[in-house]
Every structure is written in structure tokens, then in C-alpha cells.
Automatic annotation (TrEMBL):
Pfam name, any one: Bestrophin_2
Protein name: Predicted protein
Subcellular location: Cell membrane
Lineage: Eukaryota, Fungi, Dikarya, Basidiomycota, Agaricomycotina
Lipid bilayer topology: Multi-pass membrane protein
Species of origin: Laccaria bicolor (strain S238N-H82 / ATCC MYA-4686)
Length: 500
């Protein structure tokens, strides 16, 4: 979800038009405007009259408008469903983090299946699991964008500590070379040390910034300081830095803007040239494709992470570290994450049937093509701007429906998945910053006035034992009555003052 209007945010460039559908429909609008110009000029300058009866105009226009409206509404419904699913991920992530941080005890003793460990070890364990919750949302982001693997700057540091091999000894060394599905990827590059990793990291980051600066700015990866100047921020700099056997890819990889984005008609000629070259040099084309794409054993990374969290939940149950109510909430939110992943996958991988799309577009083209012939008798030369406006209106709605049908990519009108992941990251760190103190550590102090406005004495004075609220054996009922009387007075004061 875009935070502000992308068309008016940041410096003005031609790329701002990517926030609209003008770049996609202007060739079609120009074509139908030329058809309208031809109809008007031929009818005016020659003896041929191209105007025809317009009885079908109203009927076909109404039906076509209803179909386009349904197309746009169904696409927007998918857009809204995607936003709702990310809200579910955010809510479940918060709840799971709170359950782990506050409900799982730090004190572990040798009792049954529970093994003794220090408080620091327990906190490290819980914080690592909360980092996996953060990694789940990041992995879902890459999964929906079709970015396979785990070697990303915002994902790998969060899951690098997970087991890699199917069988390990007690010291963490692999017995067998078989890797777990999460780490299955071919073509691995050797790692030559931390310094080389840092060098490659900086080079990749700088080249990515130079290539995608405008795209990053459009997506909100630049913030403004108090003077109003733009400054780039690096959210991956707060993540752990760990060694990797592969060069990590950027957290965001939007496709570069090309001339085909502004002149879509050229895509047809590009396709024709591609077909001709492939027929002329089939062997070279096959070799080039083989070298360009590495074979990847695809793994469902969000599913793998959820399995680790499910295993942690099972460990807590076996060790008796969770109360029944907390265990129910834990399992409910874990299932909510998996259910949300399935729904997001459904939205992403279920496009509108091609037959419906092509039939609707061809019907609209035919309608707009014959529109000037039907309205020329009534409008004359006004047929040209009228046809242009009708083409812009109908084609625009059709293109909007197609653009928001899959709202998980890098288009300016797509959902801002990076913003959602960063919000979850901030909230999880806020949860783990909570010290979880005992109530007596912060309730009974000189600042707290719990009975205001009827009684403005602080908590220290109220519990001193020398007040009318004393509930000792001698004056217990009287103290309770005085306390209730004070609470009723507070209610009366608040009710009266807030209604004036």
C-alpha cells in the first residue's frame, strides 16, 4: 500500500507516469483517435459518407460497461484481499512474539523433559525464535514476488543459524552431504572470507543503488530530514552480519525501467525479432539460455520457517513451559500464518482466465473501432475528441483491473510489501525491548494516583496503612466501604466533567 500519492511524491520525472495507466494505453488511444479522424475527414472531404446507424451503440455500450466494471471490481477485491492477508500476518506475528517473550519462562530447571539453562540462554533462545517470525514475513514477500532462495540481504541474516544438513553430530558437523530443502540450491559460489564478502556486499549495493535509485525513491526507500532533503536509509544495516557462501542479493530487485514501458508497441517488434533470431540461430539461443539461468531446487521458504516454529512449539509443550491457554493461542496464530500464506499464494497464482481477458479486450477494441462511425452523424468533428475520451476511459479501467490483479510486485500501485515487513520488524523489536517487570516494581510509587480525581493521593500514601482504606481485622468493612465510596465519587466527577 502506497503511503502517499506516488504521482505527486518526490521530484518530478517522466517516471511519475508509471503510477498511472497512461503509458500502457496511449498507443491504443492514439490508434482509435486516428480512426475517428479518418472517418471525419473522409466524410467531410469526399463524397463518401461513413456514418452508420447507432442503434447498437447503447445496448453494446451498456453491456460492455457492466463487464468492465465487473473486471475492475474483481481485481480490486483481490487487491483488498491481499491487504487483509498482510494484516493477518502482522497481527499473528505480534501475538506470537508476545507469547514467546512474555509467556515462555526464562528460569529452566531439570524437571522431566525440561533441561536446565541460564536466563541468558533462555533470552537468546526466545529472541532467535522471534527473529524467525520476522523472517517469515520477509520470506513471504520474496515468495510472492517470485524471488526464489534465501540469499537476500534482509532474509539470510535472520535464518543463517538454522540447521543445514539432514544429519549432524553433537558438535554440529554434518555426517552426510545431503542438505535440507531450505538450503537446496545449485551453482553455489565459494566463499573466500569475510573481507571479500564485505567487498562484494558494498559493490553490489552501490551498483544496485545506481541502477534502481529512481525506482527505490518511488517505492519510499528515501526519507526526508527536517530540512526537506532526501536521504537514503538502509534498513538492512540493523540486521546481523554473517558470512555467506553466496553473494547476497538486494532486498529489493525492481525491474529496470526501459523504453518498452513508455512505448508498449515496441514490445511487439521485440517479440518478432526474438522469434526471428531464435529460428536463425537455435543452438546459440539454447546455450545462452542455459548459461543465463542457474538450476534451482525450489523450496517453499515460508513453509520451512513455519515448520521450525511448529517444532519450537512442540518443544515447549514437551518441556511443560507453556500454560494451556498460552499454548492454544500459540497454535492458533501459527495456523493463522500458514492459512494466510495459502491465501496469498491463491491470489498470486490464480489469474483471470486468458479466454475471458482476450475476449473482453477484443470486444472493447471492436466497440471503439466502430464508435466513430456511429456517432459521426450526431457530433461531426467532435467525434475525434469524443472517441479519444471514450478510449481513454474504457481502456484505462480495463488496464487498471489488469495491473492490480496481482498486487505483490514492484509497480507503484502495488502493495508496499517492504513497508509491511519493516513495520513488523519494528514492532517485534519493540516487543523484545519490553522488560516484563513485576507489577510491584512500577505500581507503588509516588507518581501513580490510581483513585484520581476523587482522591489524589499517590500509591505510596494509599498503602501506608494510615488511611481510611485500611482493611485490617478491626476496621475491615469500614475500609472497604470508604474505598468503594471514593471510586463512586471518581465516576461521578468524570461523568460530570466530560459531559459539560
Amino acid at each position: 500500500m502506497v503511503a502517499t500519492n506516488p504521482f505527486f511524491r518526490g521530484t518530478w520525472t517522466l517516471k511519475k507516469f508509471n503510477a498511472t495507466v497512461i503509458n500502457d494505453i496511449w498507443p491504443e488511444v492514439a490508434f482509435f483517435s486516428l480512426v475517428a479522424s479518418m472517418v471525419c475527414l473522409v466524410s467531410k472531404k469526399t463524397e463518401h459518407h461513413l456514418g452508420i446507424n447507432n442503434q447498437l451503440l447503447t445496448v453494446l455500450g451498456t453491456v460492455l460497461g457492466l463487464v468492465i466494471s465487473f473486471r475492475t471490481s474483481s481485481a480490486y477485491e483481490r487487491y483488498q484481499d491481499g491487504r487483509k492477508m498482510w494484516t493477518n500476518i502482522t497481527t499473528a506475528s505480534r501475538t506470537l512474539a508476545q507469547l514467546i517473550w512474555l509467556h515462555v519462562p526464562n528460569d529452566r530447571e531439570n524437571k522431566g523433559l525440561q533441561q536446565r539453562q541460564t536466563v541468558v540462554q533462555s533470552i537468546v533462545e526466545k529472541k532467535s525464535m522471534i527473529n524467525l517470525i520476522q523472517a517469515f514475513s520477509v520470506s513471504v514477500k520474496h515468495f510472492l514476488r517470485g524471488e526464489q532462495g534465501i540469499y537476500y540481504e534482509d532474509l539470510y541474516p535472520l535464518i543463517s543459524f538454522l540447521p543445514r544438513y539432514s544429519h549432524m553430530d553433537t558438535e554440529g558437523h554434518p555426517h552426510t552431504p545431503e542438505k535440507l530443502p531450505l538450503w537446496q540450491i545449485d551453482g553455489e559460489q565459494p566463499f573466500n572470507g569475510e573481507e571479500k564478502q564485505k567487498e562484494d556486499h558494498s559493490k553490489q549495493f552501490s551498483s544496485t543503488d545506481e541502477k534502481n535509485t529512481d525506482a527505490a525513491s518511488d517505492q519510499g526507500w528515501f526519507s526526508r530530514n527536517r530540512s526537506g532533503k532526501q536521504r537514503k536509509f538502509d534498513p538492512e544495516s540493523v540486521l546481523p552480519y554473517v558470512d555467506s557462501e553466496q553473494t547476497l542479493k538486494p532486498a529489493r530487485m525492481p525491474p529496470p525501467t526501459t523504453v518498452y514501458d513508455y512505448i508498449p508497441l515496441l514490445r511487439f517488434f521485440k517479440w518478432v525479432v526474438h522469434i526471428i533470431l531464435r529460428k536463425a540461430q537455435p543452438g546459440m539461443q539454447r546455450r545462452r539460455k542455459k548459461n543465463a539461468f542457474a538450476e534451482i531446487v525450489e523450496s517453499n521458504v515460508p513453509l520451512e520457517i513455519s515448520l521450525i516454529l511448529q517444532g519450537y512449539f512442540a518443544f515447549l509443550l514437551r518441556s511443560g513451559l507453556l500454560q494451556p491457554a498460552s499454548a492454544t493461542g500459540f497454535l492458533t496464530n501459527l495456523n493463522s500464518l500458514q492459512d494466510t500464506l495459502s491465501n496469498l499464494e491463491r491470489i498470486c497464482n490464480t489469474p483471470l482466465p486468458f479466454a475471458y481477458q482476450i475476449h473482453l479486450r477484443m470486444s472493447l477494441w471492436l466497440y471503439l473501432f466502430f464508435l466513430p462511425f456511429q456517432v459521426y452523424n450526431a457530433f461531426g468533428y467532435l467525434t475525434i475528441p469524443g472517441t479519444a475520451f471514450a478510449s481513454f476511459l474504457l481502456l484505462g479501467f480495463l488496464e487498471i483491473g489488469q495491473e492490480i490483479e496481482n498486487p505483490f510486485n514492484y509497480d507503484l500501485n502495488d502493495l508496499d510489501l517492504d513497508y509491511f515487513c519493516l513495520s513488523i520488524q519494528r514492532e517485534l523489536h519493540e516487543i523484545t525491548a519490553h522488560p516484563n517487570p513485576e507489577p510491584r516494581d512500577f505500581v507503588f510509587n509516588a507518581i501513580n494516583q490510581p483513585f484520581a480525581p476523587a482522591d489524589r493521593r499517590n500509591a505510596v500514601e494509599l498503602v501506608s496503612g494510615n488511611t481510611e482504606y485500611d482493611v485490617s481485622h478491626e476496621v475491615g468493612p469500614v475500609g472497604i466501604h470508604s474505598l468503594r465510596k471514593t471510586l463512586v465519587k471518581s465516576w461521578m466527577h468524570v461523568d460530570t466533567k466530560t459531559r459539560q
